[in-house]
């Protein structure tokens, strides 16, 4: 389709504008036809590249993942696929590492997303004041976003170091003994969540700020005439006013949380990274997928983990839909 | 499935009249001053703390990269830069293949950003200004694709790239991210507001075909947004981790992949690791210092509002 339209376009260009066509009647007719093809076809040609690339590299792999998950495939012999029906799924659901990774993904997801979005909301509120150096504060809040997972995780791994890390040193001031962040489950999950929170809070704050600035000023005026305090204005005007943005960021952070991979991998420093600590205390589904596929060479099982992640996402969104529907029904 | 839960109103009419195209464009991307109250001292203090928290880890990266391993591994940790910054950077450049990684990342991020901008502008223009059957359904589909994380397809993607002989090659990283749904949506929002319908219709009356209209009318109007989208996409592509980590190896890495190599060694040289981290962040940091205003306003302009 794309090629034919391009030809049509080129043809029409040669023909020139229909009204001034030198060949008289037939030329005008041909021009009109090309014009119609252009009008009808060009929009599809313009949106086609997006859909072609998406279909080839996202949609097809997603579907094919389901097919692979029904097979036994090894990394070294990718071409020989052996049908095993639902064996991989049965194994996965019997595997305590899967449930452990699922729990870790959910707890790290909650620990990293909830404070992140709440702080972003507060930050956006502050950034929305009329002030000096507002550009500086906005750019500063985006600096973590410019830092790659790799660099950010390396720095925070060092800050959370047991023996010489700055965070233990600061905790020492208030009389807290040095923590072995990596070796203990909850400290490790908090440390990993800290990296996520640090990287994404400022970005989300800017999204909220943009939405806050789109709230009509008269709503605030009306609220203040009614005697609403600043806090009341925030909870009754600002938050409802940016509701869809909040939903949007929740959706994006949830997707991000289910895919968490780089932060725990690097936090584990080398061999401990892929297993998510010596006792899998911070292994996420993303890490489990990688371990199955590229460390244990079981591509079929890796595909099963991927598909389980997708089902988890769908479940979360169905739950979110149900909750929001229930809430809208009860005023 | 989940598409309806997205807060994007695909049915809103896209014809918001804008006065003069280029000026409207610039106005859309400018940061508006908050129209609420003036900030009190408390707001400044809180924002100051926030800025400190945002910047400190990077400052400390620089400090750690400028001392040596023994000094970094002492408590209390160093707070002021030492004398070894450039020698550590040079070592990271050589030992961790950071030089090659930087060139690779530049190619990968550059190509991805260029193609994303081109295809997003084409599709964004079609969605914002052209009438065609199925437009709303297709736009909803575009937004729906944001729900499908690309990581889920890594297993077949890896098989596909192995079949094509592209494993460990840069095209394996580039191909899957040549387009972006966020980009399409961003350009559609922008052009919907910045490009007056009259301009497109006038060009049609003059007999210009769609590609000509795109070239001589849409591109000039879209230029500021394209620049912003380029930078944002560049940042994302530069920092992308999971798929490059899976499909590339240490002989031909991008920057984030090379960084994992630094920390995975048995003898850990902390200041070398930090030098590598700093090196990998510097290009983006430089971009943020020069174009910070544009990037901030671009992210805000692309936000879902309401």
UniProtKB/TrEMBL annotation, chain A:
UniProt keyword terms in alphabetical order: Cell membrane, Membrane, Transmembrane, Transmembrane helix, Transport
Membrane topology classification: Multi-pass membrane protein
Primary location group: membrane
CDD domains named in the record: TM_PBP2 (cd06261)
Cited Pfam families: BPD_transp_1
Domain named ABC transmembrane type-1: residues: 102-323
Region (Disordered): 1-28
Organism of origin: Streptomyces spinosisporus
Segments crossing the lipid bilayer: 44-63, 106-127, 139-160, 299-319
Protein name (record): Sugar ABC transporter permease
The UniProt record lists the keyword Transmembrane: yes
Superkingdom to which the source organism belongs: Bacteria
Cell location: Cell membrane
Cross-referenced InterPro entries: ABC_transporter_permease, MetI-like, MetI-like_sf
UniProt family annotation: Belongs to the binding-protein-dependent transport system permease family.
Keyword check for Membrane: yes
UniProtKB/TrEMBL annotation, chain B:
Protein name as it appears in the record: Carbohydrate ABC transporter permease
Residue stretches making up the ABC transmembrane type-1 domain: 121-291
Tagged with keyword Transport: yes
Membrane topology classification: Multi-pass membrane protein
Recorded superkingdom: Bacteria
Gene3D superfamilies named in the record: MetI-like
CDD domains tied to this protein: TM_PBP2
Membrane spanning residue stretches: 42-60, 101-125, 137-160, 166-186, 213-238, 272-291
Primary residence: membrane
Subcellular location: Cell membrane
Pfam families: BPD_transp_1 (PF00528)
Record's keyword terms, sorted: Cell membrane, Membrane, Transmembrane, Transmembrane helix, Transport
InterPro entries tied to this protein: MetI-like (IPR000515), MetI-like_sf (IPR035906)
Listed SUPFAM superfamilies: MetI-like
Region (Disordered): 1-22
């Amino acid at each position: 389709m794309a090629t034919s339209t391009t030809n049509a376009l080129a043809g029409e260009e040669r023909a020139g504008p229909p009204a001034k066509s030198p060949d008289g009647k037939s030329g005008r007719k041909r021009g009109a036809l090309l014009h119609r093809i252009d009008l009808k076809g060009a929009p599809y040609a313009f949106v086609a590249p997006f859909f072609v690339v998406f279909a080839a590299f996202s949609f097809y792999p997603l579907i094919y993942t389901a097919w692979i998950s029904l097979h036994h495939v090894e990394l070294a012999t990718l071409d020989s696929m052996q049908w095993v029906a639902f064996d991989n799924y049965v194994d996965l659901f019997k595997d305590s590492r899967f449930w452990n990774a699922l729990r870790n993904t959910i707890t790290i997801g909650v620990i990293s997303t909830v404070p992140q979005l709440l702080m972003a909301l507060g930050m956006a509120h502050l950034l929305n004041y009329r002030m000096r150096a507002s550009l500086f504060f906005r750019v500063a809040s985006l600096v973590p976003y410019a830092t790659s997972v790799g660099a950010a995780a390396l720095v925070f791994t060092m800050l959370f170091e047991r023996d010489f890390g700055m965070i233990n040193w600061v905790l020492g001031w208030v009389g807290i003994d040095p923590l072995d962040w990596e070796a203990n489950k909850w400290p490790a999950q908090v440390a990993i969540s800290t990296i996520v929170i640090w990287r994404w809070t400022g970005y989300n704050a800017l999204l909220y700020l943009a939405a806050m600035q789109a709230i009509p000023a008269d709503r605030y005026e009306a609220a203040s005439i009614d005697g609403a305090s600043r806090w009341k204005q925030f909870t009754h005007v600002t938050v409802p006013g940016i509701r869809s943005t909040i939903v949007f960021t929740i959706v994006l952070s949830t997707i991000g949380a289910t895919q968490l991979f780089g932060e725990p991998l690097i936090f584990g420093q080398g061999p401990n990274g892929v297993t998510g600590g010596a006792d899998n205390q911070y292994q996420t589904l993303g890490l489990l997928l990688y371990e199955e596929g590229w460390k244990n060479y079981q591509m079929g099982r890796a595909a099963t983990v991927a598909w389980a992640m997708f089902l988890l996402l769908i479940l979360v969104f169905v739950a979110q839909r149900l909750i929001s529907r229930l809430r809208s029904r009860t005023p | 499935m989940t598409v309806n839960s997205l807060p994007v109103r695909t049915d809103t009419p896209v014809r918001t009249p804008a006065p003069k195209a280029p000026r409207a464009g610039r106005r859309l991307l400018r940061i508006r001053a908050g129209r609420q109250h003036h900030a009190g001292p408390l707001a400044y203090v809180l924002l100051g703390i926030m800025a400190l928290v945002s910047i400190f880890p990077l400052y400390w990266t620089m400090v750690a990269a400028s001392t040596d391993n023994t000094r970094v591994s002492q408590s209390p940790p160093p707070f002021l830069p030492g004398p070894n910054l450039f020698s550590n950077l040079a070592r990271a450049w050589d030992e961790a293949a950071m030089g090659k990684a930087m060139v690779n990342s530049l190619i990968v991020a550059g190509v991805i950003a260029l193609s994303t901008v081109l295809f997003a502008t084409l599709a964004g223009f079609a969605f914002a200004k052209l009438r065609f059957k199925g437009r709303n359904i297709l736009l909803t589909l575009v937004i729906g694709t944001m729900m499908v994380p690309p990581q889920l397809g890594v297993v077949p993607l890896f098989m596909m790239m192995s079949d094509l002989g592209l494993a460990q090659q840069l095209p394996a990283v580039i191909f899957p991210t040549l387009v972006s749904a966020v980009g399409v949506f961003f350009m559609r929002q922008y052009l919907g507001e910045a490009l007056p319908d009259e301009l497109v219709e006038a060009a049609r009356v003059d007999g210009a075909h769609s590609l000509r209209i795109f070239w001589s009318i849409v591109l000039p109007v879209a230029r500021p947004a394209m620049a912003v989208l380029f930078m944002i996409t560049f940042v994302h592509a530069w920092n992308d981790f999971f798929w490059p980590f899976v499909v590339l190896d240490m002989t031909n890495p991008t920057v984030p992949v090379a960084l994992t190599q630094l920390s995975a060694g048995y003898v850990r040289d902390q200041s070398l690791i930090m030098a590598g981290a700093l090196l990998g962040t510097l290009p983006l940091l430089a971009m943020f210092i020069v174009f910070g205003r544009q990037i901030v306003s671009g992210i805000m302009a692309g936000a879902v509002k309401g």
